[in-house]
Design goal:
Layout: E1 13-23, E2 29-39, E3 43-44, E4 50-51, E5 58-66, E6 72-81, H1 106-114, H2 121-138, H3 165-170
Antiparallel strand pairs: 1-2, 2-5, 3-4, 5-6
Helix pairs in contact: 1-2
Length: 182
């Protein structure tokens, strides 16, 4: 169902974000993310730099290379368009994410290694969702590690509620699983 008809308005900012997942020939996985910010009107930033309408203010991408256990083996960052001179300094600290896992502690690892002035807010935003993209990419290829424990996506949204009909149908063993048993 589409959104309702909006009030009269003027478009000012566009952020385009894309994620892609790949299986590599060597058995590893590449998860990629891109972010691009543009304005619809010419703008002048502090310091006098003028951006023409449609010219990228932010244009950055990340490639994570992970294994079947979601451990990061490599990370590559490109910051082709940035608004300020120091911005590219945020690329090098991204290497701190190597050996992290895209699991329940992923966001905590991002904050620990790249939080605050250690990194770039936009790169962190891209990293947050890369775990979900990895799961969506790998889900059909990875055999559940432990059939005695529920898959990690159960209990994470209304559809995968342990007490809901989808879990009852697809994962009856874990239907109505009590919290203390997880």
């Amino acid at each position: 169902m589409p959104l309702s008809e909006p009030a009269a308005r003027t478009a000012l900012h566009h952020r385009d974000v894309a994620y892609r997942g790949f299986r590599r020939a060597d058995g590893l996985w590449d998860i990629e993310a891109e972010l691009r910010d543009t304005k619809t009107l010419d703008i002048t930033m502090q310091g006098g730099r003028v951006w023409a309408a449609g010219e990228p203010i932010h244009g950055m991408s990340i490639r994570l290379t992970i294994d079947d256990d979601t451990m990061v083996h490599a990370i590559e960052v490109a910051m082709d368009h940035v608004p300020h001179g120091p911005c590219p300094q945020a690329a090098a600290p991204m290497q701190r994410m190597v050996a992290s896992r895209l699991n329940r502690s992923w966001r905590k690892a991002i904050e620990q290694h790249l939080g605050g002035i250690q990194g770039c807010a936009h790169l962190r935003e891209l990293l947050f969702n890369m775990a979900t993209v990895a799961f969506q990419t790998m889900v059909q290829s990875i055999v559940p590690a432990d059939p005695e424990h529920p898959p990690p996506h159960l209990g994470k949204c209304v559809t995968w509620d342990f007490n809901g009909p989808v879990v009852q149908t697809h994962y009856p063993k874990f239907f109505r699983l009590e919290v203390e048993k997880r």
